[in-house]
Amino acid sequence: MLTSFQSFAAPGWSGKSKISSIYALNETQALVKLASFRNPHNCEVNSSGDIILNPLTNKTWFTILLSAHMAGKEVDIWVNASCDKTHWVGPTFATIGHVRIF
Q1: pLDDT by residue (tens digit) across 86-96?
Q2: What is d(CA 26, CA 6) in angstroms, rounded to the nearest whole number?
Q3: This protein's superkingdom (predicted)?
Q4: How far apart are alpha carbons 23 and 83 in whole angstroms?
Q5: Distance CA 2, CA 44 (A)
Q6: 80 close to 65: Cβ distance less than 8 angstroms
Q7: How many domains are contained in the chain?
Q8: Which end of the chain has fewer CB atoms surrounding its CB within 10 Å, N or C?
Q9: 4 — pLDDT class (breaks 50, 70, 90)
């Protein structure tokens, strides 16, 4: 029997969740780890984070995420249909398109 299936990776919402951690790798890369992450684009995330952003160029998003984390609030993040990487070999992380805080 031959079975065929197609994997569809697209942009989408991360799902409403609290932030578990924020890992600043350097001045231009920070990883956000969510308690629950749908990973709509199937990036190869790891335990260090699900979503990557540049705190220097994405100041508003970084401020919102840091504030939500400190206040214990939930967020829902629209991730683009692309993955980005760090200097690490292997993992890739979702990129941000929109951020909501609850």
Answers
A1: 999 999 999 99
A2: 37
A3: Bacteria
A4: 17
A5: 27
A6: no
A7: 1
A8: N
A9: very low
With a CB cutoff of 8 Å and minimum separation 6, the contacts of 71 are none
Domain of 79 in residue numbering reads as: 12-101
Q: Is residue 3 part of a domain?
A: no
Separation of alpha carbons 64 and 101, rounded Å: 7
Q: Which two tokens stand for residue 80?
A: 């683009």
Distance CA 68, CA 75 (A): 7
d(CA 70, CA 100): 15
Q: How far apart are CA 92 and CA 19, in angstroms?
A: 18
Of 5, 19, 23, the residue nearest 102 (C-alpha):
19
- For the stretch 43-58, what's the b/e string if a residue is b when 16 or more beta carbons lie within 10 angstroms of its beta carbon? bebeeebbbbbbbeeb
37-59 pLDDT per residue, tens: 999 889 999 999 999 999 999 99
Degrees, nearest 5: CA angle 30-86-16: 45
